[in-house]
UniProtKB/TrEMBL annotation:
Gene3D superfamilies: 3.40.630.30. PANTHER family: N-ACETYLTRANSFERASE, GNAT FAMILY-RELATED (PTHR22442:SF10), PTHR22442. The gene is LOC117645319. SUPFAM superfamilies: Acyl-CoA N-acyltransferases (Nat) (SSF55729). This is Soluble lamin-associated protein of 75 kDa-like isoform X2. GO terms for molecular function: acyltransferase activity, transferring groups other than amino-acyl groups. It holds the Pfam family Acetyltransf_1. It comes from the Eukaryota. It comes from Thrips palmi (Melon thrips). Residues 61-228 form the N-acetyltransferase domain. InterPro entries: Acyl_CoA_acyltransferase (IPR016181), FAM169 (IPR029625), GNAT_dom (IPR000182).
Amino acid sequence: MECHRCEQVVNMEDPELSTDTTQILPGIEGILCPTCGLCVGLYYVQEWIPVKQCLLDPAQEDGWTLAEGLWDKAVHWTLSQVVYRTMEPPNPDCKEALFDTPDPTDVIYLLWVGGKAVGFCTLKPRGALYEKTVESYAMMTIDTIFVRSSYRRRGHVRTLLEALSESHDDLGFSQPISDSMVKVLSRFLVDSKVHRRRFWEISGAGNEGCRKLVWYTIRHKYMARSSNHDLVRRSII
């Protein structure tokens, strides 16, 4: 196994190798690079699996799938805590933030393309506890979402939004909503007027006083732009 950050080669069969491990999930450990501390592989079913190989599953069909088993959650952990944090790190200037590991009650979806896990989405179910205020979430809420840069602009997030909208009357989006996600939502809501009063930007658990319509935020943003955007503004009013 090779660390992509410092290029240290980690050979688990080397008796002189001094490495640390950390438990990432019950029954699954991660091996840390002895040089920089980055996770380079997972130990599962008595086998060390390199990070890149953890994201491969030729049996998976293309599209979003519900993460149900322990290994699915390990794949999500690899994407959110290794790939997203170190290979494609968030840009704070674009309102991108680091993601925590999900709560036990969170719903997790994985995006598969060509037998490779390339994205994820975690959701807070309606009624789930928001620990900071001991309130319950007012609606199903997208808490985190990520698609690897080389797989963006292919309609994957739009497909997920359409599927979630079919099964939930209202859909929340945790603050901050990244600039790239705002663009996706803008295109989606311009095309789908029926969802304009169903998508909410929320803080906390999204109860009264802690939510506002995404559509109003988008419309205000475009209305504030220069007259060079008249055509766009007319299409969203």
